[in-house]
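Researcher: I'm comparing several assemblies side by side, and this is the next one on my list. It has 956 residues spread over two chains. Same procedure as the others: predict the full complex and return the structure.
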Amino acid sequence: MYRNRNLDIAIAAVIAILGGLAAAKHLPGQVTIPLGIGLFFAPGYLWSEAILTQRLPGLERALTTLGMALIFPILGGFLFYGLHIPLFKSSWIGLLVVLTLLGVVAVAVQRLREVPVDERQLRRRSQQAPRRRGPVVLHSFIFGLAGVIAIGSVAYSVKSAQAEKFPGYTMLSMTPVVDNVAAQNVAVLSNNPTAQAQAATIENQLQGTATQAHLFVADHQGVPEQYELVLREKGKVTSTWNITLNDGQSWQQTIAWATSANSPKLADSSMLADLYLLPNTTTPYRYVNNGSCVSNLNLYPAALRAEDPCIAKVTPKVTQKSTAKSSVKK
Amino acid sequence: MDGSLGARAEVRRPGRAERAPEASVLSRVPISVITLIVAIGVLVSSMGYASGRSGDGPHSGPGTTLYWIGQALILVPIACRLLSRGSLSNGGIVTLIAVLTIAEYFLKCNYDPLGFAFNDEFLHWRGTTNMLQSGKLFELNYGLPIGTHYPGIEEVTSALVSATGLSVFEAGLVVAGVAHCVFILFLYLAFVVAIRSHRIAGIAVLIYFAAPSLTSFNSMFVYETLALAFLGMCIVAGLRSAIEPSAPDRRRWFIVAVLCILATVITHHVTSYMLTGFLVLVALASRLTGSRNTAARFGLLALISALSVAGWIAFIARDTITYFSPTVVGMAQSLKNLTNGGSSGAASTSSSPFSNTVLEAAGLLAITLLIAIGSWQAWKRYRRHPWIIGMMIGGTLGWILSLGIRLGTSDGQELSGRAATYIYIPVSVIAALALTRLVNSAPMRRLGAAATAFVAAAVVALLIDGLSNGWPPFWERLPGPHQVASFEASVDPQEVAVSYWSLAQLGPGNVMATDSGIYPVLIGYGDQNPQQQVTFLYSTPTWTLPVAQQAAALNMQYVETDTRLTKVLPLAGNYFLDQQSTPTSPLPLVYLTKYNHIEGVARVYDDGTINFYDLVSLGYVPQPKP
């Protein structure tokens, strides 16, 4: 036992190096996950050994190992933040590997300095409680069975959740293509309300100058479906697509987009996209629009007129709406 | 023995097996068999979940029955074994506690094993994802602005994701699970060192499981779960730094305690305050009981903790004060009104079934009685033990404060439920002292196993009270069909897909109005900025001038509508986060469909139930008429 007392630090060092390599080389999960878990907990074990040199009971050693393993990324990450080192994957792996290797050195130095425990004492300790083989095997089997049942319950729950039935739906959207770098740069937006407000303003301005939009359809009906997508501009059909999608599959098309920047002020710039679930080609299944009203409602088939934003102008609610519109324009 | 920790250190480890004179039948069941029964309990409860998914959710009679049978299989054998007067080794108690903790954590995971479902978990999922993408601490998080200043759990999860290649969900489950187990087992170790009895410490941890948040909020992927592990570790390290016989060992444990304090301060605000308070309490109790060394050691740790907390707030997390001010001021005002004999203004937030309310009242009464008996026991038998006296003072005061908050403040039930995580630490010790005294009293001994069974039944009832009045609430006890605006019950694949769509097609950070169901999912998976002040957008049949002005003032970019809101009432009480009055009828359809008929408002998304409207398009879509 005493002869192998440094085996643990050797194993930890090997795990750290292999784990670091596996993560850096993007090896398959079967290799990366166990080694990565070893790499994650190795600094905790080594530093708990290095700091708490006394012989701790197994439970305390295990708990301090886990606790220290959870503490190191927090303090290490904060240190990296102070040193302006970005916390990307390579930094985390580097931190864990360096902490492990430093831990190996610390434990080795510590063990060289400490007085070795009398081997006879250790042998006596190990002989103190002779174990009865029969019950141990039986209890181990029962514990193992319990573990299998518990893990089986997780597998059962996963299966049950995957088999859960949800109502089917189909997603349809038409959104201007905006490459708002300001809004996507999370690092710049970080904890900065001014940057966030600017990003929102830029987003709105970019939407106003966008020249293209995405038409997007995704099928979540649980079965393959056939669709017909009809795009109308200024009340007239400009494009028609026949789309077949499997469950979970999506379709996207880039189209020209009418905005105030590229359309005359008083022109009809209405855009209306209707999605039909075949074989029904009379009643739209889903629809989206760009919020602009068609100049003449009669350009639309009767079934589509309700989709125009201005259809409600014939109702008594018109006054309130026109007032609201003018106020927002300001 | 003078009772000081130094003197107690020599006898701090009880014998391998604490033996009582009488052993009941329950005590002869091997731990392995109890573990097997508990595992079967987990499976049976999971079958209850499955029944909910395939049926009517929480209204599934067989599902609910299976869930509670499973919980009984988990709780009864462990409670009986820990409370029985038979011999039980330290290893046996540790195994039982670990099995109980892991079993309840498995059930938490099995509630939704495919992804996070609990609201706060989405916020930390987003925080971790942002950190992985940007490589920075203190990332913007629209759902939890205060959480950006406490990035501990995001750091740990990012490190694990980087090392293993696991997804944030998988790594989050590992981090939360490990932290939760570490917390409970450190708590047990702390109790053992403090009480010097494995058996009473085991019973104390068992009673601690009656805290309503323990198996829910404190085992979720949230920052408090991780910070609690450091709190438990700090308590043990602090204790050991005071009682270890050798000076170098005391110094080494002190270093560990300081590391734990720093990690707690970086990870979670309330836990760091509670830790500071706990350290102060023990220092004062040590001073009162004459343990000057312990008092000095804990005083120093308390000072380090207080300075760390103050430094963190001053230099990193200044928002913390404004974050907590309204809650603290509101609580203080309500309590002041209550003590002045007026009305606290507390609205009854409990709409639980009658059985839950009865169980809750009985649990409160039982705990109050146990605290009274336990405090008397502590004063009578452990007067010179700083830890136990500290627990007595902290437990009693904390419990009274908790009752005051529960009864006297508007959201007292939630606040006291969250505070129970900390208050139950001393309370469970005092209650365990009382229970042990009761079980070992002469009249109870004469009753034999029947008395043990009665006490075990009472403790199991306390644990069930914690579960039934904790989270998830009764109306989403089982997973199942979609419910409108109702926390986890509102998170379906459709909400998740819509959130991913919003990020892909609209970009991140858009200011949105949403119902409370999809709100956390849009923050998490969508990285959007949904607002809380939104009811006005869903309260009128037409787009009126005041509504338009208010929307413009809030820079509202998108409005999300869900036609399911027009069909059923929300089980959680309100459709929107800022809705003041509980609706009595479903939302009128016209309140949502009005957005179809506003010139310049684009209908950008439609999936049959959920729609998105772009309000800002009013400013850029050309208008055909002047």
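Model: For your comparison table: Confidence is low (pLDDT under 50) at residues 1-23, 343-350, 622-626 of chain B.
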